[in-house]
Amino acid sequence: MSETSKPTDDSGEMLDPLPKGESYRFACHQGVRCFTDCCRDLHLVLTPYDVLRVKRGLAMDSTAFLDRHTVQDTDPTWQIPVVKLKMEDSAARSCPFVTPEGCRIYADRPGACRAYPLGRAVRRSPSPSDPTRVEEEHFLVREPHCFGFEEGELWTAEAWMEDQGLGAYNEMNDLWMEFLSRYRPGSREDLAPAKWKMFFLACYSLDRFREFVFGTRFLSLFSIREARQEEMRRSDEALLRFAYTWLAYSLFGDPVLELRESPA
Ligand code: SF4
Ligand code: SF4
Question: Quick one: which of 20, 77, 129, 217 has the fewest CB in 10 Å?
Fold first, then answer.
């Protein structure tokens, strides 16, 4: 593929397709001359799972985390609420989590930080034997300021994703993308203010969503198996999965929840 026919991302950077099985050389460590240069002046949109992981890693309440570390915006394509990591208010606009030694939330860093320089595009491709099957394609983001391509091991996309702990991120973010696919531009309706608020609560403000589910009459109105309730109490991930179910029911009218015949 010629240079000029390469796809570009939103920022105009070159994206190189990475066919399955092909590899690239890459390393990122304290010895690389650009170390942490990329952790500034970012427009880093956080997925709901990113928010879950970072706020949990910081042992922060979701409202406190969102207030302190994010800015709210509207996705121009999907017209839904999105949150972006708030950069420091300084000339460098550094990420609040970068230190001279690297990322201080490394174990829970956002999916985009983990995956870099690898990009992943997925599309649903259901088959009779696997209705949830997705097909994925990978590409490399080659930015001139990144010298990580000059050294290190050879990585396939699969090996890189495993090394960077992306399995849980891909699984949760694929659910998110599947949910978002309901909002295809042109086929969606604008979210009314109350629905907008609920969307934000369920996707990003997980601690408030937990209060909504467990601290109101919610469970007396909806029939949800005890085992699922227990899992949602124990696991943030289970609660976030349920948030998508709830939004599919409350925003789209999908028949994925049952009202109790008479409230408990
Ligand atoms: S620019 Fe590339 S090599 Fe340098 S710190 Fe960032 S990811 Fe690592
Ligand atoms: S979260 Fe960590 S890896 Fe991501 S930009 Fe901030 S410091 Fe860098």
Answer: 129
100 cis-preceded (ω within 30 degrees of 0): no
Same domain, 42 and 159: yes
CA-based nearest residue to 250, from 199, 187, 189, 183: 199
pLDDT tens-place values along the chain, 264 residues long: 223 334 444 555 578 999 999 999 999 999 999 999 999 999 999 999 999 999 999 999 999 999 999 999 998 877 889 999 999 999 999 999 999 999 999 999 999 999 999 999 988 777 888 777 778 999 999 999 999 999 999 999 999 999 999 999 999 999 998 888 776 555 456 678 888 999 999 999 999 999 999 999 999 999 999 999 999 999 999 999 999 999 999 988 889 999 998 766
Distance of CA 153 to the CA centre of its chain: 27
pTM given for the model: 0.91
Range of the domain at 225: 189-253
Kindly give the distance from the C-alpha atom of residue 27 to the centroid of ligand 1, in angstroms, as a whole number: 8
The answer to whether position 76 is within a domain reads yes
Do 114 and 194 lie in one domain? The reply is no
